[in-house]
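Entry 12.
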Amino acid sequence: MEARRAAGRKGLAVLVDPDKIRDGSDLDWMKTAGFAAVHTVLLGGSLVTEGSMDAVAGWIRERTDTPIVLFPGSPSQLTAEADALLFLSVISGRNPEALIGKHVEAAPRVRELGLDAVGCGYMLIDGGRTTTAHYMSGSLPIPGDKPDIAATTALAGHYLGQQCFYLDTGSGADRPVSADMIAAVRAAVPAPLIVGGGMTTPDAILDAWAAGADLAVVGSAIERDPNFLHAFAAQAEGKG
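Predicted 3D structure (C-alpha cells):
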C-alpha cells in the first residue's frame, strides 16, 4: 500500500466474511472481469462463528492471486494461508481489550504463523446505526460529524507508531465516512488511510478516494449485487 500511495495510485479492497461463505462457489465472482479492479482481499469480521478461515482462504487462493490480508475481529481469526495481517487496535474507543488486551493473546500465534503484521489504528465512525463492529468492540464510535475528533485521534495513533489507519462505519452501515472526515484525517497523518463501511455505490468509492483514502473497502454491496465490481470498473474507467 505504501508503494501504491507513493506512486499516486488508489486501491480497492473487498471484505470477505467467512460466515457468509458456504463453499468455493460463493466466491466465483472473483473470477469475473470486474474483479480486476480489486487490489486486496480482506478476510475476517467482527464476529465469525461458523466460517473456516483456512478453508475460505484456500478457496480465495484457487480463484485469484490478489493478496489476502487478515482483518480479524479476534485472535481465533488467524490462518497461515494469508499474506499479511492488519494488527488492529481500536484507538477510537477506550476498551483496553480492543486496544491491547487481545493483541497480547494473539502475538505468539502471529509469530508462529509467520504473518506479516501491520500495526493499524482502527477507528470506528458512527454510520447511522449500531453495527456488529461497534457492539463487539465494546466501544462508542466517533460521531460522524466530528472530523476534528477523528483527526486528533489519528494523530495520537501516528505518534504511537501506527503504520496505517482504518476509518470504518461497519458492515451494513447506513452511510459511509464523510468526505470531510476523510480529508481531516488525511491532513493529520502521513500514513496510508483505509476507509470502509456503508459504501453502496461506485460513486461512494470514488468520493472516498477523492477525499484522501488510499484504499476503499466494500463488502455488503458485493454480497447484495455480484455485479457491483463490474459496474464500479466501468464507472471508474469512464471517469479516469
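Annotation: Residues 10-239 form a domain with the TIM Barrel fold (CATH 3.20.20.390). Residues 19 and 36 are 24 Å apart (CA to CA).
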